[in-house]
Amino acid sequence: MVNNSMKKSAYRKIYEAHYGPIPKDDCGRSYEIHHINGNHNDNCIENLKLVTIEEHYAIHKAQGDYVSAFKIAQRMALSPEELSDLASKSVTLTNQKRVKEGTHPFLDKEAAKQRNLKRIADGTHNLTTDANPVYALIKANQHHFQTNNPSTKKINDGSHHFLTDHPNKRQITCPHCNKTGGAVNMRRYHYDKCKVAKILPVV
Question: Is residue 65 classed exposed, middle or buried when 0-12, 13-18 and 19+ CB atoms within 10 A define those classes?
Fold first, then answer.
């Protein structure tokens, strides 16, 4: 079995065999070898091009190859914001490719559902751990729905209309049986529908 690192460096050795040692830039970083046709298994010398790391990054980004651009960007030590943007595009591109090839795990919805249920059950799902910022905020009672949500504040101080003006909170009395209760249930089971009214006519 061929070692991956050996396979990756083979094209550099091929280039050096034809043109000599690969130079370094002013920052001491080695120049990179770009596969012109995009096939990394095609190491014929005509397919190998010497570029700076910045050029290599720009080529792959312009081609929309965000997976390769992200790997190069990591070597360039770009800002966290730039790396995050590339990582997001890289994941999207990878997922689209897997869906097209039929290898994405979400294509088997039942299997994905069972995996997620298992992760929820054993507490390792990202939605149920502190890795999820929203979950962490809820646990700490700091989520804006718990703090800055106007409805929450009204409920806490007893002024929410569901606590005051809600139909089922108003108490009314049936004229037939004199029973008192919430307006919704009273109108549903009393007044014209009251059992007493069916037996005793209103005087």
Answer: middle
